[in-house]
Amino acid sequence: MKKLTLLLALSLAGVSSFAQTTGPVGVRSSTDYDAGTSDSRNTGFGIKGGFNLADVYGDSKKNFANSSNSKTFHAGVYGQYGFSNRLSIQPELLYSRQGFQGTSTNTPTGGTATTVKDRRLDYLQLPVLLVFNILDNVSIHAGPQVSLLTKVTEDGKERKIANEGNIYGYSYTSLDYGLSAGAEARVGPARVGARYTAGFNEIIKDQLATSGANALTDIKNSVFQVYLGIGFTQ
User: Fold this and answer.
1) For the purposes of burial, counting CB atoms within 10 Å of the CB of 160, is it exposed (0-12), middle (13-18) or buried (19 or more)?
2) Which of 8, 102, 199, 227 could form an SS bridge with 220, CB 3.0 to 4.6 Å?
3) Closest CA to 93 of 38, 151, 146, 153
4) Read out DSSP for 62-130?
C-alpha cells in the first residue's frame, strides 16, 4: 500500500511536470475538445486505456505466502460534461483486469485441499468523477466507483464466481465499490493520467475458515493505473 501511494505521488508529479512543459496556461490548443456545440471546453467524450498495477490490502493479506502485485490492463470509454472551464463531471465505463498473486491453501469440509497462487479478477467498472482544472492543461479528479465482477481465473483456470455448495471453501464477491483519485495532463485532444483506486468491499466471502492463519476474507482491491486517452467534441 505504501509503495503504491509513493508510486502514485511520483506519477502525479510527472504528469504535472509534463503538462507544464507543453505550453503556457490559457492556450486553447491544450483543451480536450474543439468548440463544438458546447460553451464549455470540458464537454465531450473519448476513449482511454492503459496499465494496471493491481494488488490487495487488508488484514488477511499476511496469510498469503509470497504475495505480489499483478501487472494487467484496463480500457474503456468516458463522457464529460463541463459546468465551467474549471469544473466538470466525468462518468466512465471500463473493463479492468485486476487480481493479485499470493499462495494460499484452503480445505472445504469433506473436500480436497486446494492451493492457489495467481488470481485474476475481471471487472466492468463505472467510476463517476468530479474533475477540476488546476491549470489549463492539468486537472485532478476524484469520485466513487462501482465494479461488477465478470470473470475469475485461478492459476489460469476459469472458475464460477458463485460457489454452489461451497465446494472450494470460499467464493468471490460479485460487487465491489470504492474511491478513485488522480490527475491528468492534456495536449490537444490527447490526455495522459495516473489514478489510484481503493476498493472497500471484501473480495472473498463465504469462506469456511474465517479466522487465524487460513483466513482470506479481509482483502480488498488496490489498483494503480496509468493511461492514455483521446477526446472528441460532442
Assistant:
1) exposed
2) 199
3) 146
4) GGSEEEE-EEEEEEEEEEEEESSSSEEEEEEEEEEEEEEEEEEEE--TTS--EEEEEEEEEEEEEEEEE
Mean pLDDT of 64-85: 90
Mean pLDDT of 3-13: 50
Residue 32's nearest CA partner among 12, 50, 47, 11 is 47
Distances (CA, A) of 227 to 40, 105, 156, 196: 24, 35, 26, 12
Produce one character per residue of 118-135: b if its CB has 16 or more CB atoms within 10 Å, e if not.
Answer: ebbbbbebbbebebebee
Q: How far apart are CA 219 and CA 205, in angstroms?
A: 10
- Looking at every residue in the chain, the average pLDDT score rounds to 81
What sections of the chain are H helices per DSSP?
2-20
All structural domains of the chain? 2-233 (2.40.160.20)
Instruction: For residue range 164-200, list pLDDT tens digits in order.
Output: 666 677 888 999 999 999 999 988 889 999 999 999 9
Task: Give the residues across from 232 on adjacent strands.
Answer: 45
Under 8 Å CB-to-CB from 120, ≥6 apart: which residues? 70, 72, 97, 98, 99, 151, 152, 153, 154
Q: In this predicted model, what pLDDT tens digit does every residue of 98-122 receive, in sequence order?
A: 998 888 776 665 556 667 888 899 9
Question: What pLDDT is attached to residue 197?
Answer: 98
